[in-house]
Request: fold
Amino acid sequence: MRLIYGAPRVVRFFENVLGESRFDKTCSEYTSLLIVSPGIILFVKRVCKRQSAFTTLSECLKILILSPSRAFGTAQYLKFMALILGLETSCDETAAAIVRDGRTVLASELNSQTDIHRKYGGVVPEVAARYHLESVNEVIDLALDKAGVGIHELDAIACTQGPGLVGTLLVGLSAAKAISWVTQKPLLAVDHLYAHICANYIDTDLSPPFICLLVSGGHSQVIHVKAHREWLILGETLDDAAGEAYDKVARLLGLGYPGGPQIDKVARDGDSRAFKFPEGAVKGYDFSFSGLKTAVLRTVEKLEQPLPVGDLAASFQDAVNRVLFRKTHQAAKELGVSKIVLAGGVAANSDLRKRFTQLSEESEIKVFMPALKYCTDNAAMVASCAHFAGVEAGLDCMAYSRQP
Ligand code: ADP
Ligand code: MG
Reply:
């Protein structure tokens, strides 16, 4: 029998029962369970529901039947990773959240440093790290208070390990390690990009497979998520990320920082057909936004003041969103996947959301997008990700700036 993707405690439980840990892919055969007692059915179903999985359940059941006292005597394993504290400090938001079962947010607190970095036109890493240090304890306390959860009631502590600014990541990671050590609860390391995708599990019944358009300040990817922790990047940006393009064009138009939300706002009063900007001629599911950015710059240089900011913003937004929408839809069609998921800060863009909402209304494709507050960096997505795909980390685990 091979076991996979289990939340660490589930894996540990089966290691105890089986004497070894083996990993495989998710399975949903319940039919063979009918022959065993209701207690065992219930137990195995709960295990499966919580991401643990078996190659053949009948094989697993044989072992459970052979060692029932070990299986049913271990009451704490039935709780698994119900209540997770998530921490996020990868950039300029200090965030803490308590999430139950990966889907229900009991509290999600956030201290944004946007106002501090605005005057520099971008995030200053050392300054960000210092502010995280000042606010991390307060944000954690607020989240615990709001959720009405004591620190020893937590089942696990989850934290963003990377990618991000190493100095800021270390603040969250150190706090998570300290809580894990004091409470003796597992520390779960989470990848920031995968956490953005997992924001879609909050308050929904979403499960893989699906196609995800992940568009943030640092990344633009079309991903085929086949199962929890099993995904394939189909395409990505060859230069600027979509969010980065939004931010740079906003600066060019004198719209301030962060630029994405500003462009979104002024574009509502603009004409998206006023200027014809190129989409970026890249094959397959890849993107390129630097040519588009240069095209906006050249156009602005030729125009007289005051600039038609609304028209420029709407035309730029249209060019970016058109290609994001087309390639994501194309991936879903070509791979025969019936669910599309949006993730990352740019998923908050109202025009992009409108395009995908329309697609879901006009086709069989089901579209998921996080609530606006869970599009940009937050800790609820970290706790959710830990529940579905967290990896138990030791106290010696290190932050990483780029995906390994
Ligand atoms: P990262 O994880 O790379 O730090 P986030 O996921 O927090 O990035 O997203 C931040 C990015 O999202 C920024 O580039 C910002 O401009 C962009 N963004 C946020 N809201 C919107 C919006 N409404 N329209 C377009 N872009 C947006
Ligand atoms: Mg992010």
